[in-house]
Amino acid sequence: MGTYKRADHWTQKAKSQGFAARSVFKLDEIHEKFPLFGRGIGTAVDLGCFPGSWSRWLILKGVRVVGVDLHAPELEGGTWIVQSALEVTAEQLLTAAGGPVDLLVSDMAPNTTGNRFTDHCRQIELATRALDLARAVLKPQGAFVAKVFDGEDAPGFAKTVQESFTEFKRLKPEATRDRSVEFFVAGRGLR
Ligand SMILES: C[S@@+](CC[C@H](N)C(=O)[O-])C[C@H]1O[C@@H](n2cnc3c(N)ncnc32)[C@H](O)[C@@H]1O
Asked: Domain residues of the chain, as ranges?
């Protein structure tokens, strides 16, 4: 099956299950390979939550979600902060979540320019911001997931995540497009 047919497969599968985007299968696979929470999870922050498939996946698992994006998802059951994650404060997140959270996920990506280096730098800025916010709002045993566009600064960022958590994994889920430069880093147990 070619790249585009496979892309259609994931998109159609997402729609048929009521999810706004194919990216839901990335989070599902990450959780399968590196469990982000057990039964006791209460709250999560979802950075770059629009159009809402990761948030919906979490809400369906009984997680209370605070989502941040430049656009508000058309989805009930979460608290949406329509603001840049570069500007939102840890205090805002803690207030919205009612205290420290069990999980912070970031699928944030900038509007791509076509210039691979520029896109990489902008995306690493978002991923770095996600890690800073995670350090400020996660419970000690909390978990973290962030999307990364591969490039010059990606290994350094991945190493920082690895050093920030007691357990770490780098993942490239199947639903990621074949030629995509993206991968994910995941950590558990904040150091
Ligand atoms: C790949 S989409 C996320 C898809 C989402 N995880 C889902 O499953 O529905 C990337 C998102 O990052 C958001 N984004 C980009 N820059 C951002 C920023 N500075 N602050 C917050 N969100 C941002 C975009 O608006 C976009 O909705």
From this structure: 3-190
Residue type, 61: K
Distance CA 50, CA 46 (A): 9
State in Å: Cα 18 to ligand 1 middle. Answer: 19
**Alpha-carbon torsion 172, 102, 168, 84, what sign?**
positive
**Strand 101-106 relative to strand 64-69, pairing:** unpaired
CA 79 to chain centre: 16
Quote the ligand 1 centre to 117 CA distance (angstroms).
19
On the CB side of 62, CA atoms within 13 Å amount to 6
The residue type found at 163 is E
Choosing from 11, 13, 19, 49 the residue with most ligand 1 atoms within 8 A of its CB, the one to mutate for a pocket test is: 49
CB distance 119 to ligand 1 below 6 Å: no
Q: What is the pTM of this model?
A: 0.95
* CATH fold for the domain made of 3-190: Rossmann fold (3.40.50)
**Ranges under pLDDT 50 in the chain:** 1-4
Do 166 and 191 form a contact (C-beta atoms < 8 A)?
Answer: yes
Cα distance between residue 172 and residue 29, in whole Å: 9
* Residues tagged active-site: 147
